[in-house]
Amino acid sequence: MEAHWLDRFIGLMPRQPAVLDIGCGSGEPMSRYLVERGCAVTGIDSSPEMIALCKGALPCQSWRVADMRSLSLSVRFDGLLAWDSFFHLCPEDQRKMFPIFRDHASPRAALMFTSGPSHGVAIGEFEGEPLYHASLDVDEYRTLLDENGFAVVAHVVEDEACGRHTIWLAQFI
């Protein structure tokens, strides 16, 4: 269901781009889709278990255990992806992520992330455990993107064709 958005993301980058998957989880399906389309993926996740799954499934890519909130790789990427990961941070930590996105973005880099549909906090459930979600409001995301050099390319709230994800696609200018 994410293919349409991933294709738009890939379309903003040069051929054979370097992509940073922020909060990559197991690497499925997002990183795999990117790799199958010629992207070189560096994935970070705070879970050693998730990174181990990535290394097993996609061993030719770069996988690192890291906390996105303190990420400083000293490398710039053609694309930055934070799909179903970024919104698990509290609002203050989300605000602090935008300079991190900027610091890891090559000129004209694509940035794609998911958020909630509006400002607020929600507690969901995953495998019987509570799962925290937070979102800033639309205007604040737009301001943070702009202040950090990103122009919004597309934004859809609760995209029916993509599992009701709220998606942001931007480009570093």
From TrEMBL:
Gene Ontology terms: biological process: methylation
Superkingdom, natural source: Bacteria
Record's keyword annotation contains Methyltransferase: yes
SUPFAM superfamilies recorded: S-adenosyl-L-methionine-dependent methyltransferases
One Pfam family linked to the record: Methyltransf_25
InterPro entries xref list: Methyltransf_25 (IPR041698), SAM-dependent_MTases_sf (IPR029063)
Domain Methyltransferase, residue spans: 19-103
UniProt keyword Cell division present: no
GO MF term set: methyltransferase activity
Entry keywords, A to Z: Methyltransferase, Transferase
Name the record gives this protein: Methyltransferase
Organism of derivation: Methylocystis iwaonis
